[in-house]
Amino acid sequence: MFSLLFIATATVLLTTRPSTTHQHSRRFRSGGNAYMHRTFVALNSDPLKTRLDLIYRQANDHITLVKAYAAYARKLKLDISRQLKMFDDLAKNFSDITSKPRYKSTLFETDGNLDEDVLRQFEKEVKDRVKFARLLIAESKENYDNQLKIQKLKDTIFAVRELLGKAKKNGAFASSIAAKSIPKSLHCLAMRLVEERISHPEKYKEDLPKSEFEDPDLYHYAIFSDNVIAVSVVVRSVVKNAEEPWKHVFHVVTDRMNLAAMKVWFKMRPVEGGAHVEVRALEDYKFMNSAYVPVLRQIESAKQRFYLEHKMENATKDGSNMKFRYLEHMSMLNHLRFYLPEMYPKLHKILFLDDDVVVQKDLTGLWKIDLSGKVNGAVETCFGSFHRFSQYLNFSHPLIRERFNPKACAWAYGMNIFDLDAWRRKKCTETYHNWQNLNVDRALWKSGTLPPGLITFYSLTKSLDKSWHVLGLGYNPSISMDVINNAAVIHYNGNMKPWLDIAMNQYKNLWTKYVDNDMEFLQTCNFGV
């Protein structure tokens, strides 16, 4: 029965075969019926014709694909005329292969067996064009595949964000190093001033304290810094813009290391207009000891932990001592602002200025502002959700959460008018001590003087008009010059200090115009101003 079925099937196939054996080789016949027809013919003919049929199929598929991409490109009206031409030429090349006389006569119009060498050459040409077509399609695919374009764009955005994040971190780190480092010119200036003191001790004998230093009827300023040139610019800018400079008194406090340099500067370059300058060292204030000052106590505790942890590594080397000495001085110069009533017991009001500010107008109007019984007069910095208490204090801690409003507006240090009488009545230094002791593990705030200042003067700060104090010249390049020119005090807060090479050029001249360029040591030290 199986033999009969096989004979019957073979008979049907033979009787339905076309009269001409080359019909299966017509140029790129398409459709399922044609393919089935060629397949049946191949089973009963030269084996090379099966191979030829497969080559046809591959070529025909790529012609269809190339034409589809070309049509889609025309529909999208993409600016890829070169690729369109290549697609069209490629489709034409596929079609022209069978028109070659050699292939036409030996492969498509013969009733006999196919020439294997010719077929191999034909196959090579078809495969070369198929390879080129695939490369062209792969290169152009992203222009037509929206999902591929979207994914590639996402990948690019992610990669750029990663690079941007790394660049920001590296930039911030480099900027921080530049800001905290002492420029060579500034170090040279301090050394020259000390050398001058040593060479001519008779010129720099200690003067007796002036009565003006304690006169509450004069305008008093507190400036705490170890930067000689920065302090000189602050003082000079105040005096240059003061209507009555002889009524202004500057209390400059520095560390012991820079005391001599600071004194020599103001001896060699007396302040114009009869203004008065008092220069003292941090160590001159005997109440500043670890028994009274929490920050000093915390620094000593940190030093002890450091020595214990690094005992086996010889932690008492000079490098370690210098590290902690630097931290101690810097920290205490910053925290000295919380002890103004003790430092100046006979004064009623005092204006605190950072060393990175420039004064552009007469500031005596600040003493006339009614603080309404509050302690601190300052410019608020909040806008929208930015610079609120929640950004500076840890509101996950119950002590902070229960006592303060996270949406309360923060204010700025750098130019603050303090009512010392109200300070004494409100016992603000005691408040500061209490909170500093609670923050020994830095659970309430991380570091700095602004967070404890916000706490100490919470509900005791009067908001001043923003034109009194404009901030951001040390990091924000987009501040309006109209706003800057209208400001009484401009503040270079941020890493780009005006005495550094990284200062922003559009703001630097506002600071350099108050530098005393006639000072001989500035020329000697190549101070780049």
TrEMBL record:
UniProt-listed InterPro entries: GAUT (IPR029993), Glyco_trans_8 (IPR002495), Nucleotide-diphossugar_trans (IPR029044)
EC number: 2.4.1.-
Cellular location(s): Golgi apparatus membrane
UniProt name for this protein: Hexosyltransferase
Listed GO biological process terms: cell wall organization; pectin biosynthetic process
GO cellular component, one term: Golgi membrane
Native organism: Gossypium davidsonii
Entry similarity comment: Belongs to the glycosyltransferase 8 family.
Signal peptide start-end: 1-21
Record Pfam families: Glyco_transf_8
Membrane topology recorded in Swiss-Prot or TrEMBL: Single-pass type II membrane protein
Enzyme class: transferase
Annotated metabolic or biological route of this protein: Glycan metabolism; pectin biosynthesis
Keyword Coiled coil among UniProt keywords: no
GO molecular function: polygalacturonate 4-alpha-galacturonosyltransferase activity
PANTHER family registered for this protein in UniProt: GALACTURONOSYLTRANSFERASE 4-RELATED (PTHR32116), GALACTURONOSYLTRANSFERASE 9-RELATED (PTHR32116:SF61)
Keywords linked to the UniProt accession: Cell wall biogenesis/degradation, Glycosyltransferase, Golgi apparatus, Signal, Transferase
